[in-house]
Amino acid sequence: MEAAVEPGNLAGVRHIILVLSGKGGVGKSTISTELALALRHAGKKVGILDVDLCGPSIPRMLRAQGRAVHQCDSGWVPVFVDQEQSISLMSVGFLLESPDEAVVWRGPKKNALIKQFVADVAWGQLDYLVVDTPPGTSDEHMAAVEALRPYSPLGALVVTTPQAVSVGDVRRELTFCRKTGLQVVGVVENMSGFVCPHCAECTNVFSRGGGEVLASLAGVPFLGSVPLDPELTRSLEEGQDFIRDFPKSPAFPALFSIAQKVMSEAPARLS
Amino acid sequence: MEEVPQGCPGTGSAQAGRGASCQGCPNQRLCASGAGAAPDPAIEEIKEKMKTVKHKILVLSGKGGVGKSTFSAHLAHGLAEDENTQVALLDIDICGPSIPKIMGLEGEQVHQSGSGWSPVFVEDNLGVMSVGFLLSSPDDAVIWRGPKKNGMIKQFLRDVDWGEVDYLIVDTPPGTSDEHLSAVQYLSAAHIDGAVIITTPQEVSLQDVRKEINFCHKVKLPIIGVVENMSVFICPKCKKETQIFPPTTGGAEVMCQDLKIPLLGKVPLDPHIGKSCDKGQSFLMDAPDSPATFAYRSIIQRIQEFCGHHPPKEEHFLSS
User: Which residues are recorded as binding ATP (chain A) (predicted)?
Assistant: First the structure.
């Protein structure tokens, strides 16, 4: 019943990376945003597609709340978050009348909007499209994978925290990746320890070890651990460029290394 | 219920059974006849079932990873410390069922009896149900669309033999979608005491929590109050406090003042909480002197007071 897929709006996108986790609150949006910023600093053109319809976090993280979405001949124009127009963003956050408005939709309506986000946003030429997802393995994930599949290959970055409770959910996400034919670029362990600013003691606030366990269980690369850093958290809250502002932060080397690995391992489309 | 087609307009919609995407759907005739618009008989069945359940509490958050399951589990443990209080914990997070692990019940299976499904008991007075008990392997993924998830939630509410229960705690996934709508819809005739909403101090969390609060208002779900989790970190070595998740917009306190909703309490970040959850043990027992335990206990008491001051409507008792 579907019309033949035209390359259309994703024709100019070289790599598509989905950022997934079975678990909520592990830092998918944080990692998506920081990955985009790191790729931008490496000279790449990046788009971010935020398909978390109930909790769209990315506009605030890039100080783009309240921006309007315009139409062009090919569809919706994504919002550029910087003057150089090197990072563009589409999120349901831009379509809400007020930031407190709740999107209380059942599956079919969510699926329809995600399909539109994939097909009707005029991304133009991009080196990377980072797709941030909500937690789980349900409507949004199936809709995103099905809509993006014609533009394969896709890569997935899977995020966990060190706790076993998180690993317990995220291993189900890895099954989802296997079942849907998504190639896993690697596992990122976030919130990996906190260094007390007063006495420099490192505490494993959310337990330890989960990321490496997960990567080895699933036979996928472990891309690195990102420690807890209140500067990173604050920077995201205030829509600042953490990569530019905090090169001395303990989180910086980890984030930078993850971006490097994504650039070397993300499957590229043969054009 | 069979898988619905892409573009399904929804069984309650005016287009039900008549839209182009309805062609070929096994439910097309049913929808076109208008049967989909009639109230689900399960709602009455669930009302009957819930007559033996005195208080029902939903634990919600717009945001993921703020500690809903952690809180639900410890609310259950805390209430069940009184042997005379019967507690039930229902996990309706279908994709990411954390409760079995947190309650130390991984690998347990659900049994059927004449009166329905039996919950898995942690203690004599604390029973648990989760989709996690229906999965045979820890790697099994539940890749279901909304309608199938709704069907599972209906079964959990209708077919589990909870028995006489003082408190039913319902742990939910993050968001404002199928699971939340279904839980409220199926329990609509049975009177929910209210919702406890969990957040962390960050604006990125509060942003989603405000949406959840709007959801509660939309569906007329009373709000018992908000819990601010991961409030402050106390270094185990030097005992100094740091805010790992800075409240850049004033945290839950300011949000609750603005929205005139009670702040039930603030729980500090204690690394032992995560460890207890991973081991499947009650943190309240593992670390009775932790400031986090004091915070939990005070919040639990306030919830009990709320339920005591807002008893279920008379009609539920008159007919039993």
Answer: 22-29
